[in-house]
Amino acid sequence: MKRLGEILTELEWVSPTGLAKALATQEVLGGRLGTCMLEVSAISEERLMAGLVRQLQVPAARIRDLVSVPSEVLRFLPESLAIESHAVPFRMLGDQLHVALLDVHDRVLLQELAERTEKQIVPHIANEARLFQALADGYGCPVSERFRQLVLQLEGQADAANGSDPSPPNEALVDGAERESVVRDIAQLAQELAGARDRDSIATLVLNYLSKRYSTCALFICRRHEFRGWRGAGPGFDARRLSSLKLSVDRPSALAHLKNGARYHAGPLTPNEAHKEIAAVWDDEVPRDALVVPARVAGRLALAIWCVPRKVGSLDAAAIEEAERLAELTGDALARLIESQREQSTDVAS
Asked: Are 74 and 138 in contact (CB under 8 A)?
């Protein structure tokens, strides 16, 4: 595994001078190299986390993931274990518990967390200062003045970058800020998908993204003659029911609409039998609105991404554009995975 400093200098995200300053700081104060880079302003927080994702091949816990974590999620880890292991659970998705960590490849720790929570642990690398702040917020663990000051420094940099204004924003500014936020989130997702090593990792990243924006969401694998339920999220979600769901491409549905070449489906759904079977995955009725977009690999429909908005009538052009971009990134990630597996097979055969 390459060292973080080597990766960041190769990407030209940190200068040799900046790296030298960070190493000098680390020698005096200790801590993670990334923390020291942030302290001497050698790199932005966003680029640091992207570099860690590349190095460690796991997703990163975002800033908003670690702020105001729901108490019902925090309760999955006892306070003593969370503080001792420097671990913050921040999201439940099906049977998976997403946890922010400093040591994402500590197998003993991951096994202990899985046994104590009886959940599948999905590790996320975290900014050291943000993680300790989250431990303080969630479990009352004292945070050092060093990390407290660094978090304040980072928040000040973010405010300056965003041109924060204490006056109430008008509607146009709000729309612009939301647009910029989507662009940043999509860019972050692209980086995380680039490091995905298997199909399940791709599915987890996509569902994490969607679950912040939609009430329910699911992924359907497209075979030649049928759609098969794969992964999903949302209140009432039944993983077994989804995995057993198979819908022929000949049955009328929004999924079949994609198979027939549609760019997407956005809007009302007819209450036909196929849609009822899909809605039953969440023990619900056919939703008033749904957004369904295709993820294609080499021009072939590989996945159908199913999303139900939180509010009827909220599927505007921006939401559709964002979903299409997500689907494109998903298709690219699957294509890279297939190519990587093909190369490995060739190497074994030779």
From this structure: yes
